[in-house]
Design a protein that fits this description.
Length: 365
């Protein structure tokens, strides 16, 4: 069945894949106000979608192994690889969200539907154009984010399930991440990640983007850029072992919850050290990225000379990323405001490195 928007000259064209008996009529009616919508069953997903779609919306039962496998096989193909993909969840539970991300979701929405909220997500998630970005820079950006996201899935879904993360998993992603930011820009990386990812995933990808852009700004050697990219990507690996209810809490944490979250550097370090094969500087970043030069950080209260350069740099980009991200309990800071806050931290941060980071931070506005 094909349903077309009533307005003439729609700017978006979405492919809606549904396995619901009502063919997602409620969702279709919402989408039609901003898009042309082609609705098909998951069994009819084409190998090569005809025409130029802005993206695909997937409304399937994630508990159906048959539907999941059918969609997975299609989305793995080159024809769909660069296409933004929004998955509809039956509810906002973390498990469904994780499964959607593992299937390649670039954003998710949940039932019951909030029409206004969905339209905002659609405008952000799908380009206001009849085609998606197939330029060299666009493909590099998509490939880099996809590679980084694959590592996030292995961290936040695999590790809690007892599936080890290997150094090789990270090596497979680093080159694509470096190329993505070099060929496009930090601004585009942040904009894409900000539209399509939430929570811990988004933070890790923000930190990785800032770290790589900073390394390239400092004209680091390629090997050093790769080392920093690896460390930034894995810096919060320990959060995989923190209860999801705490990580996703829509408000400020209690003192007890904060104590639990503060265990993540040690938990991450222990997990990677037990696996083996991870370079010392990566383990250093995982364990010490919350240490501050004046000794007020955690978990070990290290001071100035005890904190390595790679940790100092990661701490700066980690704090900046956290400040400019939207949180449930506050609006995001502007890059300028975030940088000003960090300057006010004085001796807690390496101010020489921070000033070098200024043009990266303010240039990403």
């Amino acid at each position: 069945m094909t349903t077309l928007a009533s307005r003439s000259s729609p700017k978006r064209r979405l492919l809606l894949a549904s396995d619901r008996t009502d063919q997602s009529t409620e969702l279709t009616s919402i989408l039609q106000s901003v898009s042309e919508v082609n609705t098909i069953s998951t069994s009819d997903l084409p190998d090569n979608p005809a025409g130029h779609f802005s993206g695909i919306v997937v409304d399937i039962n994630l508990r159906s192994a048959e539907s999941v496998q059918r969609v997975r096989n299609k989305l793995r193909t080159e024809a769909y690889r660069s296409m933004p993909r929004l998955f509809v969840l039956a509810d906002a539970l973390h498990h469904g969200s994780m499964q959607a991300w593992a299937l390649g979701a670039t954003d998710t929405i949940s039932r019951p539907f909030d029409a206004e909220g969905i339209l905002q997500r659609i405008r952000a998630a799908f380009p206001d154009t009849i085609s998606f970005d197939t330029t060299a820079s666009g493909k590099a950006l998509n490939s880099g984010i996809e590679a980084a996201h694959a590592v996030m899935v292995k961290i936040f879904e695999g590790l809690p399930a007892g599936v080890p993360l290997t150094f090789q998993d990270v090596l497979q992603a680093e080159k694509k991440i470096l190329k993505a930011i070099r060929k496009s820009s930090l601004r585009e990386w942040l904009a894409t990640v900000g539209r399509h990812h939430t929570g811990s995933y988004r933070h890790c990808l923000f930190v990785t983007g800032f770290a790589v852009a900073f390394a390239q700004h400092l004209d680091m050697r390629e090997d050093d850029q790769r080392r920093l990219a690896r460390a930034a990507l894995l810096h919060d690996v320990g959060k995989a072992f923190i209860p999801v209810a705490i990580l996703d809490k829509p408000g400020k944490l209690t003192d007890e919850e904060t104590t639990i979250v503060r265990k993540h550097p040690r938990l991450g370090y222990d997990a990677l050290a037990a696996e083996g094969g991870f370079p010392p500087e990566m383990l250093d970043v995982v364990l010490h990225h919350h240490e501050l030069l004046d000794g007020t950080g955690y978990p070990n209260g290290l001071r100035a000379s005890q904190i390595s350069d790679i940790v100092r740099l990661t701490t700066i980009v980690d704090i900046h990323a956290a400040l400019v991200e939207k949180r449930a309990y506050r609006l995001p800071f502007t890059h300028a405001k975030a940088f000003a806050v960090m300057e006010q931290m004085g001796g807690k941060l390496d101010q020489h490195l921070l000033q070098a980071f200024r043009s990266v931070a303010l240039g990403s506005c």
